[in-house]
Known about the structure:
The protein is of the alpha+beta class. It is built from ten helices and six strands, in the order αβαβαββαβααβαααα. The chain has helices spanning 8-28, 35-38, 53-61, 87-101, 114-142, 145-168, 175-203, 211-243, 249-268, 270-289, and strands at 32-33, 40-47, 69-72, 78-82, 104-112, 172-173. α1 packs across α6, α6 runs antiparallel to α7 and α6 (145-168) packs across α10. 30% of the residues are buried.
Amino acid sequence: MKDIIGKRKIWYILSLVIIIPGLISLMFQGLNLGIDFAGGSVMQLKFAQQVDIADLREGLTEFDLGGSKIQVMDNDSYQVKTIELSQEKQDEVINALTEKFGEVEILRNESVGPTIGKELRTAGLISLTLAILVIVLYISYRFELHFAIAAILSLVHDVFIVVAIFSILQLEVDSTFIAAVLTILGYSINDKIVVFDRIRENLSTVKKEDLAPLVNNSIIQSLTRSLNTSISTLILLVALFFLGGETTKLFVLAMIIGIVAGTYSSLCIASPIWYEIKMRSKAKRIEALR
């Protein structure tokens, strides 16, 4: 860890190991949008007896719902995602499944129209855009534009890592996912500001020609603080993931992935990107003077 800048290409390659499969997954699979964004109905059903997914799908086929997404949950229940159904239609489906498979317990039953889903998607994108814009303005004001560019690129890296993993594993993306991403942005930018602040302090005491050692020393000086903060947060999140409720599991998982990615990028991505930008800017100035 003593020469993070010198090994920056290795860090870039490690990130690409997830980013490239994520891009491929997004192109061919896309995101598994929940009803918050895609619209439709979702029912989480728990049967008194063991039911096979194929038999459950066959039971839904009677109502032209054979193409519904069926997912087995951790508590041996089934999440059934369909087109939007009226309450009357849902009651018919539940009654038919009860007759076919026995007693059915409804753990969740929600419906969202396509218009509302579109509005939620738009609101989520606006929230993310505004958050990124405010971050750019803040970093530019407190530090300089080069720091802001490095921060935004590394934040995009963090968010895309989360999105890529959710796409590859086809985990459901709903409104809580947006909340998790916004939380990750706040957590991650705070970590990066600590490193950038140390770089700025060291810039006033070291010759700018020695930029690589300066950045390496700044990262090492911030290393203990970053790791301690991240590990203590991850301990709580992991406990919540295994001991918390089903409804918060994906939110917590997104947070875990985001904090790991954010800590990694704060140490191995953000500062090297700033170094690259700074060195290229310096090279252009020297070239212009010739």
